[in-house]
């Protein structure tokens, strides 16, 4: 997906890192690995990813993975995801070391899903079945 799309920044970063990790894991030698990484770089540049973002993700994919420990006293706050700009502003407002709060963003779904679940226009009631009419499986014959 395009770098300018409405996908959370951390997802973009994770996808790019995983592409480089996959290239390293599946390549049988260093030359093939370098060719695979170059192909990934070309595709990312076509999709408007900045060079420094690509290089940072490539370098991160080469570092050993560290383990993370979750603080049991930390509270989670779920927020709807709007855009990268809103996400970055909120992250600046909530200083992580002083407040034991971790922000979690959820995809709100499409406008159609939101409207279908709203009480503005409840879905119509299903047709009631006539108890005198026998049930049939599949399409009625005739």
Explain what you see:
The chain is mainly α and 142 residues long. Helices cover 45% and strands 8% of the residues. It has 5 helices and 2 strands; from the N terminus they run αααβαβα. A two-stranded parallel ribbon has the order 1-2. α4 links the parallel β1 (75-80) and β2. α1 packs antiparallel against α2 and α1 (9-26) crosses α3 (51-62). The longest helix is centred in the N-terminal third of the chain and has 18 residues, at 9-26. It is extended, with a radius of gyration of 24 Å. 6% of the residues are buried.
Short description:
The protein has about 140 residues and is mainly α. It is about 45% helix and about 10% strand.
Q: What percentage of the residues does DSSP assign to strands (E)? A: 5-15%
Low-confidence stretches: none
The helix content is 40-55%
Q: N-to-C SSE series?
A: HHHEHEH
Sheet/helix structural class: mainly alpha
Number of strands: 2
Radius of gyration: 24 Å
Key words describing this protein structure:
single chain; 142 residues; mainly alpha; two-stranded parallel sheet; 2 strands
What is this structure's SSE topology?
Blueprint: H1 9-26, H2 30-46, H3 51-62, E1 75-80, H4 84-93, E2 101-106, H5 111-117
Parallel strand pairs: 1-2
Helix pairs in contact: 1-2, 1-3
């Amino acid at each position: 997906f395009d770098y300018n799309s409405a996908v959370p920044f951390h997802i973009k970063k994770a996808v790019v890192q995983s592409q480089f990790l996959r290239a390293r894991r599946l390549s049988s030698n260093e030359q093939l690995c370098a060719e695979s990484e170059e192909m990934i770089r070309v595709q990312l540049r076509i999709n408007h990813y900045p060079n420094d973002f690509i290089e940072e993700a490539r370098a991160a994919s080469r570092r050993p993975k560290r383990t993370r420990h979750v603080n049991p006293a930390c509270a989670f706050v779920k927020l709807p995801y709007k855009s990268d700009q809103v996400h970055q502003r909120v992250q600046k407002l909530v200083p992580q070391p002083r407040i034991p709060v971790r922000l979690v963003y959820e995809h709100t779904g499409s406008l159609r899903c939101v409207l279908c679940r709203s009480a503005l226009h409840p879905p119509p009631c299903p047709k009631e079945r006539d108890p005198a009419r026998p049930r049939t499986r599949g399409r009625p014959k005739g």
